[in-house]
Amino acid sequence: MKIHYRYGTIYREVMQFPRFEFCKLMDLGTSNKLIEVILRNINITTPGLLHRCPYKNIDIKDQPILASSIPSMIPSGDYKMTFSWSFENGIWFQHTTDYLTVEAYLKKPLTQAYFSMKLHYKYGTIYREVMKFPRFEFCKLMDLGTSNKLIEVVFRSINITSPGLLHRCPYYNLDIKDQPIVAAIIPSMIPSGDYKMTFSWYLENDIWLQHTTDYLTVESPLKESFGK
Asked: Which Pfam families match (predicted)?
């Protein structure tokens, strides 16, 4: 199984699962919560489609997913899930695809969250990591601010292009999608070039919430490549 997330008009793979033994899974269940939710939701929308083996016929076509029962920790957005079905000898017999739109609303207000950030610089055709920031406590940062000038600039520029997106906690829904950055307010000490910034968002118990990416082109008086 592969999960793809829609960035703009393109679905990009964000997660891949190894091969599962379907009949054993239907007998004993699985500790993988995401697989459990997806299979349960398929059976809600199409009762009896997925059941214990044996199967007398194979008619597992593309099926809808009931978005309302997706856990609220899953970020808002459009998803595509692809399943490849094969026999024990590796012979492929079916491929199915599910499309799903998720609107994430929290069961209770979010009062504590964390994020980490990586900065990449484009050398030729490849983005390479040039800076990494440790985990920040987001709600505390929004209350008290930060001495980290780069984080301060990035957050301020996000709120200029998307007013009110980043605010003090609590949060009642999760809709921090990929956002544009206003290059004009980036300090002139930052070298010219193409940048990519990735943010990973977590709850206090390290449960992943969302991953966002910002692309930015900077024109500044400093024309040397980053790191020179």
From this structure: DUF1091
